[in-house]
Amino acid sequence: xxTITGVVTxxxxxxxHARFYLRVKNDQGGEDxxxxxxxxxxxxRRGGWLPDSVQPGDKLTVEGNVAFKxxxxxxxxxxxxxNGHVLWVQDPAPLREEGYLPAKPADTAK
Length: 110
Prior knowledge:
By secondary structure, the protein is mainly beta. Helices cover about 10% and strands about 40% of the residues.
């Protein structure tokens, strides 16, 4: 698992998997472009990630799993916007357990 922070250069909100590209500073003082792959758009939409949720120029922090065979590609797990808002990408239960999302509201049904 890896966490990177950078600026969005392109967002492709399309199926089969939405993806975006992030310009990230590297250890040598230069910049790398990372390809970040998410879920399909209907899955994202159900989680509140809409076509205009991420735009070029947005600063994001992204956690994900590094691809085995493709350099500088992450399979996204968690996206945090600069204002601290978390964009839901995977099953939210582990995100709640790790403190990324607030606890579920108590069941008030009688």
